[in-house]
Amino acid sequence: MFSFKKFSIEQDRCAMKIGTDGVLLGAWTPIENNPFSVLDIGAGTGIIALMLAQRSNAEQIDALEIDEDAYEQATENFENSPWNDRLFCFHAGLDEFIEEPEDEYDLIVSNPPFYSEDYKSNSEQRDLARFQDAMPFEKLIEAAALLLSENGIFSVIIPFKEEENFLALANQFELHPIKITRVKGTPTTEIKRSLLAFSRNEIPNFPIDELIIEIARHQYTPEYIELTKDFYLKL
């Protein structure tokens, strides 16, 4: 059980445990368009959808999860939350979900599974399987372009080294960046993640900034505390 200020999450049956990436995306995602409908692609525990339920007045928050155990756990986490009447999880893959799209969404978020170079087992087969399990960015962007409402926002967290590629792919689908934040663990480490938000409307001179998480072990920066203080119990 992982407890936040306003909700708790069970994660014993999820392969993707709660991590900084999901919390960052849930806290950072722009909601100034006052979304009525939200879609979380690849829900895992349901953490991002729950954070957006807390932050926004969205009345329809849908999540998509292909893994059966994770789907069941996300559903339970939704049901046990204060916003259970606004949250719903679909047990489906992205391909299946977009075959007959019924709704457009004002906000689409995803913390997509990606292959990490830090992860190497002694089995080439296993590494390959893990690599192929990762959701291809092109498929994700194509789905977002299909499902996003006219003034909708699409928001993701990805490895920084993939940022240029992701921006180029998004541009092919006429999705334009409106905000970029690059994340570093400490002031001296290299940039590890990119938080990217897109819309259908091009914005000149959109904000690009950097977020540092810690000054030293468990000594968080004021910026990180400001971003996550509504969620973490100890901040």
TrEMBL record:
Catalysed reaction equations from the record: adenosine(37) in tRNA1(Val) + S-adenosyl-L-methionine = N(6)-methyladenosine(37) in tRNA1(Val) + S-adenosyl-L-homocysteine + H(+)
InterPro entries found in the cross-reference section: DNA_methylase_N6_adenine_CS, SAM-dependent_MTases_sf, Small_mtfrase_dom, tRNA_Adenine-N(6)_MTase, tRNA_adenine-N6_MeTrfase
SUPFAM superfamilies associated with the record: S-adenosyl-L-methionine-dependent methyltransferases (SSF53335)
Intracellular or extracellular location(s): Cytoplasm
One of the GO biological process terms: methylation
PROSITE patterns: N6_MTASE
EC number: 2.1.1.223
Enzyme class: transferase
Family of the protein in this entry: Belongs to the methyltransferase superfamily. tRNA (adenine-N(6)-)-methyltransferase family.
Name recorded for this polypeptide: tRNA1(Val) (adenine(37)-N6)-methyltransferase
